[in-house]
Amino acid sequence: MSLKPAPARAANRPGFWGSAPRNLTLGIGFMLLVMATSTAAYRLAGWSLGDAFYMVVMTVYTVGYGEVRAVDTPLLRTITIATIMFGCTGMIFVTGALVQYITVSQLDQIFGIKRMNSRIGQLENHVVICGFGRLGQVLAQDLRAGGADFVVLEHDEERVAHARGLGYPCLQGDATDEDLLTAAGLRRAATLATVLPNDAANVFITLSARSLNPNLDIIARGELPSTEKKLLQAGANHVVLPTHIGAERIAEMILYKETARFLRGSGRMRDFEVVLHSLGLEIDTISAAADSPIVGQTVETVEQEASGAFFIVRINRRDGAVIAGPEGSVRIEAGDGVVIVGRGAKTRALSGLFAPPPDR
Predict the structure, then answer these.
(1) Neighbouring-strand partners of residue 324
(2) Handedness of CA 79, 64, 35, 105 (dihedral sign)
């Protein structure tokens, strides 16, 4: 005979039924019932709806301007006495519940911020995210899924409330302010990701962050391709161009349909990408331009030139042929879609190996 633990009593459950909103809701409901009942009672005694409601409101709120009509019968006196007793008692309860609701909300906010600041103060080797727009929200979601600690910096009040509502540690303010960066524990952080849609702000944040923590790994967002060089000069380790990446994805789906389906088309592959990301790896498809240095070279040679930054796991030929797990002797041809797995390959080695040489 198995023994099951007895369910907890409802009275011990936290939540609505033991909270200030519950008391306020019950109090307002009780007052509405008292006022409706008293108004109906005066109506039954022969009063008009206007006089009855006016009398109830004055009595409940203890204004005492005077009786609307003479209360000179036992029935009217009974109705008035009952309205005074239940109405005034109910108003006292509602007033107390309202004070409780406001006080509890303020205390929750105060202590919630204190707990959050204390939590941030204990973080080390965490990630600081500057900006909680669309890109920042996706980044925070992925970091939480990967089990990484992070702090969000956001200026917009609604976005701050949204971030805190999701349970993210979030500080409100301008991320270009060095004091705010310091409060986020930047000197103890491992990575900063500035993903604001403002290139100038991202450059300034990069400069400030690099001066505060010379060993920080900085990933910066750039809207314009011309900003990439400025961000790198400001101290960014990596630059991400969302528009450029989006265009590459579209080109990938047009040129290499099978490879795109292989990489993006299943939940298993998406889960695999999450695992790779948690290990600091990326999987992607890169086009081999006709005049790029890797055309004609073997897979082994290309991987050696990359100095271990990535390795090639699949080649999609322009004629539709697919080479999975290519051997080191396989040569890369112009127009091939090369599937690679590596550490930050986009920003470290690929531009120099797969792109055509710059014009001189």
Answers:
(1) 314
(2) negative
- Closest to 182 measured CA to CA, from 203, 161, 211: 211
> Is the predicted pLDDT of residue 108 greater than 60, yes or no?
no
Under 8 Å between Cβ of 319 and 340: no
On the question of pLDDT at 255 being above 60, the answer is no
Q: Are 326 and 311 in contact (CB under 8 A)?
A: no
Full DSSP string of 231-291: HHHHT-SEEE-HHHHHHHHHHHHHH-HHHHHHHHS-HHHHHHHHHHHHTT-EEEEEE--TT
In the block, tokens 């948690």 appear at 278
Mean pLDDT of 111-123: 73
β-bridge pairing 150-154 and 170-172:
parallel
Tell me the two tokens of residue 192: 């900063």
List the domains of the chain with CATH numbers. 17-117 (1.10.287.70), 123-240 (3.40.50.720), 243-354 (3.30.70.1450)
Q: How confident is the model at residue 43 (pLDDT cuts 50, 70, 90)?
A: very high
Residue 26 clears pLDDT 60, i.e. is over it: yes
Tell which wins on pLDDT, 301 or 249: 301
Write down the number of H helices and E strands in the chain.
14, 10
Label residue 1 by pLDDT band (50, 70, 90). very low
d(CA 86, CA 88): 6
CB distance 230 to 194 below 8 Å: no
| Distance from the first to the final alpha carbon of the chain | 85
Q: Map 13-51 to HEC letters.
A: CCCHHHCHHHHHHHHHHHHHHHHHHHHHHHHHCCCCHHH
159-187 tens-digit pLDDT = 988 998 888 988 888 999 999 999 999 99
